[in-house]
Amino acid sequence: MLIDSHAHLDSDRYAGDLPAVLERAKAAGVGAILAIGIGEGPSEMHQALEICRQFNSLHSPDLPQLYASAGIYPHNTHEAGEAAVAKLDQLLAEPEVIACGEIGLDYYHQGSPHETQKRVFIRQMQIAAVRNRPIIIHCRPSDGDNACWEDTLDLLAEHWAKTGPTGLGGILHCFSGEWTHAERAIQMGFLISFAGNVTYPKAQPLREVAAQVPLDRLLVETDAPFLAPLPLRGQRNEPALVAHTAEALAVLHGISAEEIAAITTKNFERLFRLTLGM
Question: Could you say which residues of the chain have pLDDT below 70?
Fold first, then answer.
């Protein structure tokens, strides 16, 4: 079984057919999905948890196990008032909410000011530490500039690495950086997760990084509904398609698709202290 470690199941693009999407995921060998709880802002952080409870309560063998995260996305950090911060804290106390995220920095899009992003990033790390939850990191630099990576990793080193490689750790989601960035994050206890863009023709530098990531630090994701892998690039992505990305990672590491599935599942279980029994 595979685990899709990052999917936005509360996206409007799944309105009306989410049950079918989840059934296709299970049929494709996806045993669990981490539903990302950022919504379109803090007012919607709870939606991933609601989806988890809605479908997990069915106890259907035709559906994957769902988990949730909660976090304030970099673009929405200007909305992170006391009420939003309190809501995040409450959500992280729920047993189904196993991670804080996705949180971090984004210098590519014109969103919240960088200093606001940094301040709220730090605050969310503090809340996650108190709630004993790993963090899911979003880092998107502007073209040709590594400042976002440098700032993200510096903040992690200062405000998170104290939890240590044997502590809470986290995930660098939809990784797009250089090996030096991945290596530094690994040293701080992070797993490196790759999405469908690792299959794209112009992504050879990213594939070279993926091939260097130790197998015990590797995860696979869709970032659905975005970044559908080849051969379905440009279509709406969904968790069932994580198998394509997993196969690409298996080729890069010279192992079978079954082995990459078992390894990434074990890594997910270890990070979140779970025994899925899929």
Answer: 163-166, 277-278
Of the candidates 51, 13, 63, the residue with the CA atom closest to the CA atom of residue 223: 13
16-22 CB contacts, 8 Å cutoff, 24+ apart: 18/51, 19/55, 21/238, 21/239, 21/240, 22/55, 22/63, 22/64, 22/66, 22/239
3-state per-residue secondary structure call for 14-54: HCCCHHHHHHHHHHCCEEEEEECCCCCCHHHCCHHHHHHHH
CA 179, 181, 184, 186 dihedral sign is negative
Single-letter code of the amino acid located at 94? E
3-state secondary structure of 86: helix
What is the model's pLDDT at position 72? 97
DSSP letters, 214-278, are -GGGEEE---BTS-PPTTSTTSPP-GGGHHHHHHHHHHHHTS-HHHHHHHHHHHHHHHHT-----
- Residue 19 is predicted with a pLDDT of 98
